[in-house]
Amino acid sequence: MNDHDPDISSSAGRTNSPERQTPVTQTLDWNDGDMPYSREFGDHFYCQTDGRLECGHTFLTGNGLPERWSQPVSPESDFLIGELGFGTGLNFCETWRQWKLFRQPGARLHFMSFELFPMQRDEIDRALARWPEIDAERKAFAAIWPDQPTGHVVLELDDQTKLTVVCDPALDGVTAAKAGFDAWFLDGFAPSRNPAMWSPELMQALYDKTSPGGTFGTYAAAGFVRRNLQAAGFTVERRPGFAGKREMLCGKRG
Ligand SMILES: C[S@@+](CC[C@H](N)C(=O)[O-])C[C@H]1O[C@@H](n2cnc3c(N)ncnc32)[C@H](O)[C@@H]1O
């Protein structure tokens, strides 16, 4: 996403209109050789400062992770993370890396991501090779990523970690998902570029599928996003964003 605050920008050619339509294709440009940029959405996939560290600040810390993983676990239920926008899999690889460091014996993580335009393996490799810290996770995940990802891609990464990527519009995927999400990573491009990923209907579907005490984290700080999350039922908190960004949002289902 944009390093500057896209939600208060008034540059020519941008719109904050929630009416803006979701593009039907996605064409990638590669800045600096390995930084994917979506031409149709007009946005980067993560901040240009360091997407991996941004994931730690915004999505992991924003959801109280990894601390929550140290709590006693029920053997019947996985810790279920939902993500809007799988993209390169950077958030997944960084989450899996930290999960391996902090998980309890017997605990299971299920990371379920909703993605309309799944990437090809060579694109994932090209983007993620930038971070040696997640080399092991990138290689293991890319090796079993399908050539033609469609429908529900279900990958067992290790005996405590499962990844599902639902290749559909996020609203359809979340609406069809079973309830029980413990944490959400809201990562659907800047709200001004892709309002469909922040709509009242989608925020309501997220809330309805969240367990009591479940949380979300996002770099977005736009007023309409905050209001949609509050209207859905979440308690919303503003925190300092990553790399000097003034604000991000996180919150909880009571
Ligand atoms: C900011 S990127 C996500 C970055 C990603 N989490 C990562 O770790 O690389 C946003 C993603 O949302 C996807 N997307 C955009 N609109 C969508 C929609 N309506 N439903 C599902 N996915 C969508 C894009 O294809 C893109 O991959």
What's the structural blueprint in terms of helices and strands?
Layout: E1 28-31, E2 35-38, E3 43-44, H1 51-60, E4 79-84, H2 90-102, E5 109-114, H3 121-128, H4 135-144, E6 152-158, E7 161-166, H5 170-176, E8 181-186, H6 200-208, E9 210-218, H7 223-232, E10 235-239, E11 248-252
Parallel strand pairs: 4-5, 4-8, 5-7, 8-9
Antiparallel strand pairs: 1-2, 2-3, 6-7, 9-11, 10-11
The structure holds S-adenosylmethionine.
Overview of the structural elements:
- There is one protein chain.
- By secondary structure, the chain is α/β, with parallel strands linked by helices.
- Helix content is about 25%, strand content about 25%.
- The chain is built from 7 helices and 11 strands.
- An 8-stranded mixed sheet has the order 6-7-5-4-8-9-11-10, sandwiched between helices. A 3-stranded antiparallel sheet has the order 1-2-3, with no helix packed on it.
- It starts with about 25 loop residues before the first strand and ends with a strand.
- Mean pLDDT is about 95; it is low at about 5-15.
In total, the number of strands is 11
CATH architecture: 3-Layer(aba) Sandwich
Q: Sketch the major β-sheet.
A: 8 strands, mixed
CATH topology: Rossmann fold
User: What's the total helix number?
Assistant: 7
Bound compounds, each kind once, are: S-adenosylmethionine
Q: How many domain units?
A: 1
Q: Roughly what fraction of the amino acids lie in strands?
A: 15-25%
Rounded average pLDDT: 93
Shape: globular
Radius of gyration: 17 Å
